[in-house]
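This entry is listed below:
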Amino acid sequence: MDTLLKNLTIKNNFMFAAVMSDEENCKGFLERVLPIKVDHVEILKDGRCIVFLNTRGENSKDVPKELVSFLKFVHADLKESQKDFQDDYVRQVQKSVTHIRESREMEERFMLLELLLEDERREGQKQGEEEGQLKMAKEMLEMTLSRLGRLPNSLLETLHQQQDIERLKAWMQTALTAQSLDEFISKM
């Protein structure tokens, strides 16, 4: 957890979501992206909103200057994001970003999110390691058994469906001493 809330720009998902949870900020954003006037914005509390921005477009002359200004702000690094982009909406969003950075409540939310994401990364890594061990154990068992002859499909299916690493290890012990496939199958 190396990232601090005070170092986030609006291109960070957490900061973008926090800024856009304000209905006026969201309304201003939508009016820049869509060529329409937005009467009302209601933020849903379930948090489901996905927006993809391309801040690297090359046709700025074909895009409203307000949108170009906002996209430049989104693309800016921490230092650049604090400059004046000559746009009232960007100034409004900059104030929101500053307010969020200074908010103790938002700092706590961000830290909690970072901890949850770190836990998920660790759990995902652990799960990946376990899956790798299972795969390797199955492959090694198959190779060991193949010295005894062609493996029947039913045996291969049983091996591939097994998810217990301890059972696979026990089968490997049996496979190392078995003199035939029939002997191995009978001792499974």
